[in-house]
Write a structure and sequence with these properties.
By secondary structure, this protein is mostly helical. The chain contains 1 helix and no strands.
Length: 32
């Protein structure tokens, strides 16, 4: 069974992970 609420939650998690990766790369570039 698919749970649409769970799928949308996963999408939000993926977006949060991508945002964290962008911030992490920016911090690395600033430190270099």
């Amino acid at each position: 069974m698919k749970n649409p609420q769970n799928e949308s939650h996963n999408i939000l998690n993926i977006r949060a992970i991508i945002d964290d990766e962008k911030c992490f790369r920016t911090v690395r570039e600033l430190r270099w």
